[in-house]
Amino acid sequence: MIREELRDLKDFPVYPGTPNAKMDQNETPYPLPAAILEALRERVSSMPFHRYLRPERIMELKRALSGYSGMSPESIAVGAGADAMIQTLIALFAIGRGDVFHFHPSYPLYSLFAQVLGVPVKTLSLEKEDFDFDLDKAHEILEGCAVAFIANPNNPTGNLFRTDKLKELIESHPRCQFVLDEAYFEYAGETWAGEVNRHENLCVIRTFSKLFSIPSLRLGYLIGRPDMVSVVEKAQFVPYNVSGFSVEAGLILLEERPLFQEIREKVIRERSIMESFLYKFSPVVSYPSYGNFLFMRFPPGENPAEALFKEGVYVRDYGGVPGYEDFIRITLGGPEENLLFRETLQKLFNHKEG
Ligand code: PMP
Predict the structure, then answer these.
(1) 187 lines ligand 1 (CB under 6 A)
(2) pLDDT tens-digit profile of 218-233?
(3) Which superfamily, per CATH, for 4-31+258-349?
(4) For residues 50 and 342, what is the distance between their CA atoms, to the nearest angstrom?
(5) Residues spanned by CATH 3.90.1150.10 within the chain?
(6) Three-class SS state of 297
(7) Which residues face 204 on adjacent strands?
(8) Is the CB of residue 159 below 6 angstroms from any atom belonging to ligand 1?
(9) Per-residue confidence band for 354, with pLDDT thresholds at 50, 70 and 90
(10) Can you count the helices (H) and strands (E) in the chain?
(11) Which CATH architecture best describes the domain 47-255?
């Protein structure tokens, strides 16, 4: 029998069909470069699919990630997406010990996994003007928490949290494991990885789903102290927790990482074009973002998500999220998708005004 409290678990539906502009999930709009696809095809043609993955391949990926992150291979654990890390960290640090902490709004899976694992959740609402947080309230709520998830930049709000405030929290709550979720750090250019050796209760999680463009392959990693990394690996039963195909893809992507710098620059260019448009578009209040997405507020009762959907422009609707009914989040698409979003928005709101 399924546990009673899990009978009405929420799902996270995505829009069906093929949109004209797909801006509802934080993906990259650019397919993998041809050189990478070719290298992947070649690598796959000689892979021993009938065997379990060899530990050496994980070691190879950890060495490549070490080159990328500047951290030693012993401080890196590889897993099936950042999501797998979130689940494991709740299981290792919180079950039977304390609550899970996260900000609101933030990545919804911190709560979902806590609920599934039977761990209570405590949230702190971010300030509405700038999505910063109240330090005193954070101190108060963190008492009794065993794991704190902090997405930096935060999804969906796009902001980075102040280093001094986070440091104060990490240092004041040594019994709480802080997890800095750096899914979007490549777009922000700021990382906490180097801090994991200075704080016993800090680790960083990252993913290949965002800038590295392989969300469907489910590959992520954790950066932490070697003793903790070793427990995470045992709990995830490395090397059987990730697919060999994903590991080979990860290796190729890291080898070819200059190609992703070009993609990063394109996204950041589109982000600033979009920000300037939104700044002048009077119905909208938008916020600066360090990710590949933008969060924005419309006048009360005028959330355009449904109307945009009818025009084939898919965005993330926060209409059902308490306190954020008038907000949407858009993920930056390619130039044409972004233009279509702007034109459709103008059409919808001018039509209304006229
Ligand atoms: N953390 C954050 C903040 C995210 O936004 C996402 C994906 N939307 C993830 C983690 C999940 O990453 P992965 O695909 O590696 O599980």
Answers:
(1) no
(2) 999 999 999 999 999 9
(3) Aspartate Aminotransferase, domain 1 (3.90.1150.10)
(4) 49
(5) 4-31+258-349
(6) strand
(7) 180, 223
(8) no
(9) very low
(10) 12, 12
(11) 3-Layer(aba) Sandwich (3.40)
